[in-house]
Specification:
With about 350 residues, the chain is α+β, with helices and mostly antiparallel strands. The protein has helices at about 30, 50-55, 90, 175-180, 190-200, 215-220, 240-255, 275-295, 325-345; strands at about 1-5, 10-15, 20-25, 60-65, 70-75, 95-100, 105-110, 120-125, 135-140, 145-150, 160, 165-175, 200-205, 230, 265, 300-305. α8 (about 275-295) links the parallel β15 and β16.
Length: about 350
């Protein structure tokens, strides 16, 4: 730690890789020391797009306690991502929460502009009273992290964060929707909302356009010590036939490796766009669930994608009839979160 300027103010610089900051959301960070969402050694087995999007930091968090009245960030990203249907504050920004357990509150976000390119700095909190608080920085949903430095008051204390109530992560596997497209900021992705409400660690294995239910991916997921597995890749399967060929085998690979793991299976919320096409796919996903139950599996749950956006103003829930906006993600969390909580309770029995 050293003193340097951030946004024109001299501050104590703390690299998030350094103790006592705790990094979560990267299941293999302890062994690989990389902000990669898959084990680096397994990347050659994956498709080109999975290899690329694995370096997106969706679900990543830096957590610590400090009595600093000022919180700033200095960020170096791997690229300057800009998309027509997603705010840069979600694709490239970090947002900040304070508080512990399930009482974390949104505090601030960096709104990256095109001129920021792939590096920026900003004071997110200033002039707060000096007392120990838990702080959580959520990493960008559609960019990679080279470095994140937190700026604190020069005489600030810093210590490890309050542990999660649910220490083993909830692992989500799925499409661009799972990855967080098109949330306005990282904390508004449905996986983050659920994890905050449950005060749970999380791992987000949403791979935009690339979650095809490959057995290699199932094997990697099956190796993770997790509390709940949420299987949500319906949208990226190229067809109902492909989904039928991969969905239940994918489930079985994970189930055989972890017989007591609670697994939540989710179908796509896109039925409004094409009821026939997505209805066929929903039945494939439902069949995986029903077959498991018929075989005596008591730790599997099904969430019907038709329910995810509620019954009113459903057309207000997406940016493009595909990717949820913040309202859509909140409703997804409202629908999926209680089922995940039931799964957690079953896992603890």
């Amino acid at each position: 730690m050293q003193l340097n300027e951030i946004d024109g103010k001299k501050m104590l610089h703390v690299d998030v890789r350094d103790h006592p900051v705790v990094i979560s959301g990267f299941a293999w960070f302890d062994s690989d020391q990389e902000f990669c969402r898959l084990p680096v050694s397994e990347l050659p087995k994956m498709s080109e797009k999975v290899r690329r999007t694995a370096w997106n930091s969706s679900g990543g968090m830096a957590r610590f306690r400090s009595d600093s009245g000022t919180i700033a960030i200095k960020v170096q990203l791997s690229a300057a991502v800009s998309m027509a249907h997603m705010a840069r504050s979600g694709s490239c920004g970090l947002d900040l929460y304070h508080g512990q357990k399930n009482q974390k509150q949104f505090t601030g976000v960096k709104l990256p502009l095109p001129q920021d390119r792939s590096a920026y700095e900003k004071i997110l909190v200033e002039g707060w009273d000096r007392k120990m608080r838990d702080w959580t920085l959520d990493f960008p949903l559609y960019n990679g992290i080279k470095q994140v430095v937190v700026g604190l008051d020069p005489d600030a204390k810093i210590e490890p964060p309050t542990p999660f109530t649910v220490a083993k992560p909830i692992l989500f596997y799925g499409s661009s929707i799972t990855q967080g497209c098109a949330a306005s900021r990282p904390g508004n992705a449905y996986v983050h909302i659920i994890a905050r409400r449950l005060d749970a660690n999380l791992v987000n294995l949403g791979f935009s356009g690339a979650a095809k239910g490959e057995p290699e991916m199932a094997g990697v997921i099956a190796s993770v010590d997790m509390s709940v597995f949420v299987m949500d890749y319906d949208y990226n399967a190229p067809s109902a036939e492909h989904l039928a060929q991969t969905h239940e085998p994918f489930f079985q690979i994970v189930r055989e490796a972890q017989p007591d793991l609670p697994i939540v299976i989710v179908s796509s919320p896109s039925l409004d766009a094409d009821p026939v096409r997505w209805g066929q796919r929903r039945e494939v996903v439902r069949r995986t669930y029903e077959n498991a139950v018929q075989q005596g599996d008591a730790k599997v749950w099904f969430v019907d994608g038709q329910t995810l956006y509620g019954t009113t103003d459903r057309d207000a829930c997406t940016t493009d009839l595909c990717h949820p906006n913040d309202l859509g993600f909140m409703r997804m969390a409202d629908a999926i979160g209680p089922v995940v909580n039931k799964a957690l309770e079953a896992g603890n029995r």
